[in-house]
Amino acid sequence: MDLGLKDKVALVTGAGSQIGFGKAIALQLAREECDVIVNDIDLEGARKTAAEVEKLGRRSMAIKADVTSMAEWESMVNKIMEKFGRIDILVNNAGGCTPPKPFLQMTDDDWDFDINVNLKSTRNGTKTVLPIMIKQKSGKIVNITSGAGIHGGMFTANYAAAKAGIIAFSMGVAKEVAPEGININCVSPGVANTGFAKNAPPGMIENFPKTLPIRRLTTPQDVANAVTFLASDAASDIVGQVLVVSGGVTP
User: Fold this and answer.
1) Which of 75, 138, 169, 237 is 20 to 30 A from 178 in CA distance terms?
2) Distance separating alpha carbons of residues 251 and 247, to the nearest angstrom
3) What's the pTM value of the predicted model, to 2 decimals?
4) How far is CA 87 from the centre of its chain?
5) How wide is the angle at C-alpha 174 spanned by C-alphas 151 and 84, nearest 5°?
6) CB neighbour class for 88 (10 Å; exposed up to 12, middle 13-18, buried from 19)
7) pLDDT tens-place string over residues 22-43
8) Strands 182-189 and 89-92
9) Which position among 159, 169, 196, 208 bears the catalytic label?
10) Distance CA 97, CA 77 (A)
11) Which phi and psi (to 5°) does residue 85 adopt?
12) What is the tally of helices (H) and strands (E) in the chain?
């Protein structure tokens, strides 16, 4: 099936980790003939991912930016528009969490970190890129959430609140901009052995596959496939939804 992604320009945040969802998403979009801008706070990691995009025959650019900062978002988007002239796809993938702890033991810094790096970054990216997409009368935004945002999951309250906020935010804005030809949706990945796993409860990564019908962890490629679908013309009638990619159970 032709996904209609040839020559689209995509921006993927948090794509510098070489074992993370972001890199897999960037490379899958490149395989579908998108040009891909790679963002990360780790510029060296972003450059490595961008180099792999270019090996697939597509244009790329690595940009270091703190996605919790609106000023850095504006600078990044200006650079993209100068070189590429448009943004067709935004994947708000950057995220993270503080080490798990009971709610009453959380500090304000713990709370602010999870809200900022997950929810605020998604809001910043969406607010910065949407005017471009509205002018183009087309665009796809895919936000990465989590099962923790659906029912609390296995992580702590600040992370769950941030990821639940991404879902509610996405649904609300999706209704506003759908008439402009823009689709906003979420992907909720299952447990995966990425860099994020360092904050998982002890034993979770090793034992979790036993609880799944599919009997394996989610892979970055699983998530990349789902994101690419939602970023494509094949998903043009999907608005404000959450696609759960978790092996049969929402963790």
Assistant:
1) 75
2) 10
3) 0.94
4) 16
5) 115
6) buried
7) 999 999 999 999 999 999 999 9
8) unpaired
9) 159
10) 25
11) 80, -5
12) 9, 7
